[in-house]
Design a protein that fits this description.
mainly alpha; two-stranded parallel sheet; globular; binds coenzyme A
């Protein structure tokens, strides 16, 4: 696949097939809607919502006992948090972008302090965003090198077109939901190991290699032999070096040298050289950010939250852009489920 976009997408992705799905069959011309092949009219006449949930989630109509169990589980979850605000105009969203960018950094740092039983640190207005974050995290003002390193990492992670989390944010925003909901969708999407969670996965591997005292290349060979993907490599869009990796590689090397912690870079570099030759895959943004963040004193389970500390800027920009010229994002699915029409089988005959 070429990595440069050549065709214009219709606004709101109208008519674009974005996946295959066995859930919902729609014939827009005939006015047909069916879940798992069962016509909505049949379900409306004979079924109930709980049973339809079962059909959607488990792919078949439930037996009497299966339905009873699902009803009980739904009832057990009947508690609600009060929902919030709604002001979706451009200026309000820019204000929200500023507040969220400032405060997500504070939340991540405060969370880390609280869980370690440490006092939450007061922000300093005179500091840069990067320096203030490191102050809140570590309780002391960072060195110039550490501040600059984090600043560059924040720049490199700030935006990346329609990556999965940003797409999720835009889909949420396009329903005319609000900035906070869009960012919540984005955070959930970022977390996965195929996206922002990859930086954590990279460091777990480096730690495992370090602990076992094995050759990094042998460790990775073992992963590949087990058909596992090596986190931090490959990219849907880049078929050459990820331009962000170029900076992070240098940063990891420089910081390692200046902190007497070169081992993480050395290990990473051996892995990179091997994977490049063996799998023809390049390191992506997550590969060297792992060792970089570690040397900056950031705990491994904060790596992905730190990604969010930066990417909030991009998510917010996309939400604003989406809402400034909005159309509902509603692509289509290519139906591959049971042929329509399927019969609704009454409970006694299942
Ligand atoms: C980023 C990623 C999800 C892109 O996925 P994709 O575009 O769907 O590409 P695919 O997963 O289909 O991979 C294509 C081929 O390369 C291989 N491949 C891709 N990334 C790989 C990796 N990190 N390690 C080993 N093999 C990999 C796949 O196994 C597949 O090989 P095959 O054709 O022989 O089956 C994928 O490269 C990956 O999982 N990387 C590791 C996680 C990661 O670092 N994510 C952060 C991205 S910034």
């Amino acid at each position: 696949m070429p990595s440069l976009t050549t065709t214009q997408a219709p606004k709101g992705l109208e008519g674009i097939v974005a996946t295959t799905s066995s859930i919902c069959y729609i014939d827009g011309d005939q006015g047909v809607l069916a879940y798992r092949g069962i016509d909505i009219h049949e379900l409306a006449d004979h079924s109930n919502f709980e049973e339809v949930c079962y059909l959607l989630w488990f792919g078949k109509l439930p037996t009497r006992n299966e339905l009873k169990e699902l009803r009980e589980r739904l009832a057990a979850e009947r508690t609600l948090d009060p929902a919030i605000l709604h002001n979706n105009d451009h200026n309000a969203n820019v204000a929200k972008a500023i507040r969220l960018t400032s405060q997500i950094a504070m939340i991540v740092a405060a969370y880390d302090r609280i869980r370690k039983g440490k006092k939450v640190v007061e922000s300093e207005r005179s500091l840069s965003h990067a320096a203030n974050f490191l102050l809140l995290l570590n309780g002391t003002k960072p060195s110039e090198t550490a501040e600059r390193a984090l600043d560059i990492a924040l720049i490199l992670h700030a935006d990346h077109e329609l990556n999965a989390s940003t797409f999720a944010a835009r889909v949420t925003a396009a329903t005319l939901s609000d900035m906070h909901s869009a960012v919540t969708s984005a955070i959930g999407t970022l977390k996965g190991p195929l996206h922002g969670g990859a930086n954590e996965a990279v460091f777990h591997i480096l730690q495992a290699i370090d602990k076992a005292g094995v050759e990094p290349v042998d460790f990775v060979k073992g992963m590949l032999a087990e058909k596992k993907k090596v986190p931090g490599f490959g990219h849907r869009v880049y078929h050459t070096e990820d331009p962000r990796a170029t900076h992070l590689r240098k940063m990891s090397s420089d910081l390692g040298k200046s902190n007497g912690q070169s081992k993480w870079f050395d290990m990473s570099h051996k892995i990179e050289e091997f994977v490049k030759v063996e799998k023809k895959l390049n390191a992506n943004v997550d590969f060297y950010s792992a060792s970089t963040y570690h040397i900056l004193g950031i705990d491994v389970d904060l790596f992905t939250p730190v990604f969010a500390v930066s990417r909030i800027s991009g998510w917010a920009a996309h939400v604003i852009e989406q809402l400034d010229d909005n159309r509902l994002i509603r692509p289509r699915a290519d139906y591959i489920g049971p042929a329509y029409p399927q019969q609704y089988v009454p409970m006694e005959r299942r």
